[in-house]
Specification:
Length: 189
């Protein structure tokens, strides 16, 4: 990711304007989530990452979570901020909303969790990791944890670049919610 272009917030209009933001730390247990977004080229819907959410989308083309509705509301071509503290990444929406298992993302569950359940509570979830984290996967399995595909309503994306807030308060760029609408210009450094 270090080779990606770097962007900073701009008060002047530029060719790069985000229309919103979407956080990617599922259950607050996603390990290296910016890297996971970069690897999978998918942006999952906050509070829309359960098997039941996938079933609802695939059968009725609707979601219950307001944050999943925000992700669904972006147009193909929109630029979106994926925040992480004082930095993040800028991504462009490349396809309409989809639902299913996100290839490359793995859900790690406690040994007592039911793998066939339609949803998992925060206490069931140990982590969300990349399939490329081979040592982590081996360690979790050795500890008796269970692994499963990561189900979600999602959008396919292209990572445009890294976002350095350059001292701007992150709450001004991305609110405190899991997803929202907020316009911001970005200058390529």
């Amino acid at each position: 990711m270090d080779t990606l272009p770097l962007f900073r917030p701009s008060t002047e209009p530029t060719a790069y304007q985000t229309v919103g933001y979407v956080r990617q730390n599922a259950w607050k247990k996603t390990k290296n989530f910016l890297e996971l977004v970069y690897q999978t080229k998918k942006l999952h819907a906050p509070h829309g990452h359960q098997k039941e959410d996938v079933t609802l989308w695939n059968t009725e083309q609707r979601v219950n979570s307001q944050y999943a509705k925000t992700l669904h509301g972006f147009d193909v071509g929109d630029l979106v901020l994926v925040p992480n503290g004082d930095h993040g990444i800028l991504v462009q929406i490349k396809a309409m909303t989809k639902a299913g298992v996100i290839p490359g993302a793995i859900l790690v569950l406690n040994a007592t969790a039911n793998l066939t359940a339609e949803s998992h509570g925060r206490d069931d979830v140990v982590a969300v990791i990349s399939c490329y984290d081979g040592d982590d996967i081996k360690n979790y399995l050795a500890e008796g944890k269970k692994v499963s595909g990561f189900y979600s309503v999602y959008r396919e994306i292209e990572v445009v670049g890294r976002a350095d807030y350059n001292g701007v308060d992150g709450r001004a760029l991305a609110g405190m919610d899991s997803a929202g609408l907020r316009k911001q210009y970005w200058a390529r450094v």
